[in-house]
Amino acid sequence: MENTPDFFLGARLGAARIKAGISLEKAAKDTRIRVMRLREIEADDFSGFAHPTYSRLFLLDYAEYLGVPLEEIRPLLPDRTWAAGGG
């Protein structure tokens, strides 16, 4: 996946899901992550997460489910100092 500033992590995961032909509902069922939360992730909207650690865990779980190499996304994860609603 190309690393461009306007193609964020959630969008990358959404693109991987679509490319794999997986519906949002199937991904939610398989990962036990609510559809609404997956939509937020794919929209790069992490304002609903209580703490950056939660967003990191959800992103890692979702990436693993989609078969996206973790080493590819790890540098793009929100860091521990990132504030909810930030970027």
Structure commentary:
This protein has 87 residues and is mainly alpha-helical. The protein contains 5 helices and no strands. It has helices at residues 9-19, 24-31, 35-42, 52-66, 70-73. It is globular, with a radius of gyration of 12 Å.
Summarize the structure.
By secondary structure, this protein is mainly alpha-helical. The protein is built from five helices and no strands.
Order of helices and strands: HHHHH
Main sheet characteristics? none
> Structural class of the helix and strand makeup?
mainly alpha
Unreliable runs: 1-6, 82-87
- N- to C-terminal separation? 20 Å
Q: Which terms would index this structure?
A:
single chain; 87 residues; mainly alpha; 5 helices; globular; disordered N terminus; disordered C terminus
Secondary structure elements and pairings:
Blueprint: H1 9-19, H2 24-31, H3 35-42, H4 52-66, H5 70-73
Helix pairs in contact: 1-4
